[in-house]
C-alpha cells in the first residue's frame, strides 16, 4: 500500500489514516478486547466455530486463552493457527462452490458433538454467506442464482435475504441446530453490513431473521429474475426463524467491530496529523458510480468552505451493475467516477478502499484519484468516462499506477472513502 501512496504528496499521511482504520478492526485485537471486558462463563468445554474472512485471526485470539476443546474454522484464505485440535476449510467466495458445501457439512457435524454442558463461541465475519452453504437446491443452481444477483446489481442485503431463505444454516439455522442439543452460544461478530443488521452478516447463522418469504420473492420480481434463475429456486424458498423464536433463548449476538469503528479510528488519526476532519457519510449504499459521483461532488462543493488541510470520510458499501466486460471492483469504480469531477483541482486526493483488501475479483483493494488524474489519463490516451462505461476501472488505474494493493487484510467491515485537501 505505502509504495503506491508515496508516489503522491502527503501519501504518508494517507497511509497512516488507512492503517489506523484497519488496526481498529484487527480481528485478534477486537476479540481479546471483548474477552478482557467480558469473561466467558465457566463451563466444562468451550468450542470455537470461526466463519468468514477474519475467522483465523479471531479463532487464534480465543485459542490464546487456553480454553478450547475443539475448533472449526471456515474461511477464504487460511493462515497458520496454533490451535489443537482444529479443522480449517477454505470455502469458495464470492460464489459458493464444492468447498462451501463441504464447509456446511462440517459445521453440522461439528455442532452435533456438543451437549448442553458446552459453550459454543461463534466468531463470525464477512464472506461467510458464500464460504459455507447447506442449500436446499443443487449447487449449480445456487451458483447460478448468486452470479445472476451479483451481475444485476442487487445489493448485498438483498442477496443475503435470498440466501437465508434457501439454506438450512442461515437465518438462525446454525442456532436452531445447536438449540436442539441445548448448547449455549456466544457469537462475536465483525459487521461487514451497512447498518450492522445481524441477520445480514454472513447471512445470520445465529441470528433471527425479520424478513420473510414475501421479501425474498419481491427481490426476484424487482430485478425481473423469474426467467433468469433456475426453476428450483422459488419452490425451495423456506421461512426463516423470527426474533421471538425460543431457539434464541440461549444465544448472545455481539458486534465487536464495524465500519463505524474503522471510520472513527481514521478520523482520530487524521486529526492527529493536523487535519480538520469530519465523517460526512456513514452507511452509503447504491451504484458505485453514483456514490462516487455524489461523494466527489460534495467534496468539491466543500473545498471553498472548509479550511485546509482537511479530511472528509465516508463509509459503506456500494454495488456495481455489470454492463461491460472490463475488470474492476466497486471501490475502483467508485474512485473512477470521481476523476472528471475532481479534474484540475489543486492538492486534493480521493481514495476508495475495501477494508478486506480485496475489491471485486481483483488483486487490488482500491484506487487513488487526484486533481491531476484526468489530465494524466488524457496524456495516456484514456478517458475516465470511457473506462467507466465498460466497468474497466482496474485497467484504468493500473495504467495510471494508482491501484492500492494491500493483500487480504484478514478483516472486513465494508469500504472507506477518504477525501483530503492540503
Q: What top-tier CATH class of the largest domain fits best? A: Alpha Beta
CATH superfamily of the largest domain: Glycerate kinase, MOFRL-like N-terminal domain
CATH topology of the largest domain: Rossmann fold
Q: What oligomeric arrangement do these chains adopt? A: single chain
CATH architecture of the largest domain: 3-Layer(aba) Sandwich
Report the major sheet. 6 strands, parallel
Count of helical stretches: 17
Poorly predicted parts: none
Instruction: Give the count of structural domains.
Output: 2
Summarize the structure in words:
The strands form two sheets. The protein has a six-stranded parallel beta sheet, with helices on both faces. Strands 7-8-12-9-10-11 form a six-stranded mixed beta sheet, sandwiched between helices. It has two domains: 184 residues, MOFRL domain (glycerate kinase, domain 1, 3-Layer(aba) Sandwich); 232 residues, Rossmann fold. With 422 residues, it is α/β, with parallel strands linked by helices. Helices cover 37% and strands 18% of the residues. The mean pLDDT is 95. The protein is built from 17 helices and twelve strands. The protein is globular, with a radius of gyration of 22 Å.
Amino acid at each position: 500500500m505505502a509504495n503506491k501512496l508515496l508516489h503522491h504528496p502527503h501519501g504518508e499521511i494517507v497511509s497512516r489514516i488507512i492503517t489506523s482504520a484497519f488496526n481498529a478492526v484487527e480481528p485478534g485485537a477486537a476479540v481479546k478486547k471483548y474477552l478482557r471486558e467480558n469473561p466467558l462463563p465457566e463451563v466444562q468445554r468451550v468450542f470455537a466455530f470461526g466463519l468468514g474472512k477474519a475467522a483465523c485471526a479471531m479463532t487464534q485470539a480465543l485459542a490464546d486463552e487456553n480454553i478450547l476443546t475443539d475448533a472449526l474454522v471456515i474461511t477464504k484464505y487460511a493462515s497458520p493457527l496454533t490451535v489443537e485440535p482444529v479443522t480449517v476449510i477454505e470455502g469458495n467466495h464470492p460464489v459458493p462452490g464444492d468447498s462451501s458445501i463441504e464447509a456446511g457439512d462440517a459445521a453440522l457435524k461439528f455442532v452435533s458433538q456438543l451437549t448442553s454442558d458446552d459453550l459454543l463461541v461463534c466468531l463470525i465475519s464477512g464472506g461467510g454467506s458464500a464460504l459455507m452453504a447447506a442449500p436446499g437446491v443443487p449447487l449449480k443452481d445456487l451458483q447460478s442464482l448468486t452470479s445472476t444477483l451479483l451481475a444485476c446489481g442487487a445489493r448485498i442485503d438483498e442477496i443475503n435475504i435470498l440466501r437465508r431463505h434457501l439454506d438450512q444454516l442461515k437465518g438462525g439455522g446454525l442456532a436452531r441446530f445447536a438449540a436442539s442439543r441445548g448448547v449455549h452460544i456466544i457469537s462475536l461478530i465483525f459487521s461487514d453490513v451497512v447498518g450492522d443488521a445481524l441477520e445480514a452478516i454472513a447471512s445470520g447463522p445465529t441470528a433471527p431473521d425479520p424478513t420473510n418469504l414475501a421479501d425474498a420473492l419481491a427481490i426476484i420480481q424487482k430485478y425481473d429474475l423469474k426467467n433468469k434463475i433456475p426453476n428450483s429456486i422459488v419452490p425451495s424458498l423456506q421461512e426463516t426463524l423470527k426474533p421471538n423464536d425460543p431457539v434464541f433463548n440461549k444465544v448472545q449476538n455481539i458486534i465487536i467491530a464495524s465500519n463505524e469503528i474503522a471510520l472513527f479510528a481514521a478520523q482520530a488519526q487524521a486529526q492527529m496529523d493536523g487535519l480538520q476532519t469530519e465523517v460526512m457519510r456513514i452507511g452509503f449504499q447504491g451504484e458505485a458510480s453514483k456514490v462516487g459521483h455524489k461523494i466527489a461532488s460534495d467534496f468539491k462543493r466543500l473545498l471553498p468552505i472548509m479550511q485546509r488541510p482537511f479530511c472528509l470520510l465516508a463509509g459503506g458499501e456500494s454495488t456495481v451493475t455489470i454492463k461491460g466486460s472490463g475488470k474492476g471492483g466497486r471501490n475502483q469504480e467508485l474512485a473512477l467516477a470521481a476523476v472528471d469531477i475532481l479534474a484540475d483541482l489543486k492538492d486534493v486526493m480521493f481514495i476508495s478502499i475495501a477494508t478486506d483488501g480485496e475489491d471485486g475479483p481483483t488483486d487490488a483493494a482500491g484506487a487513488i484519484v487526484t486533481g491531476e488524474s484526468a489530465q494524466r489519463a488524457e496524456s495516456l490516451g484514456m478517458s475516465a468516462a470511457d473506462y467507466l462505461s465498460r466497468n474497466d476501472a482496474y485497467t484504468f488505474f493500473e495504467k495510471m499506477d494508482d491501484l492500492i494493493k494491500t493483500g487480504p487484510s484478514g478483516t472486513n467491515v465494508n469500504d472507506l472513502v477518504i477525501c483530503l485537501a492540503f
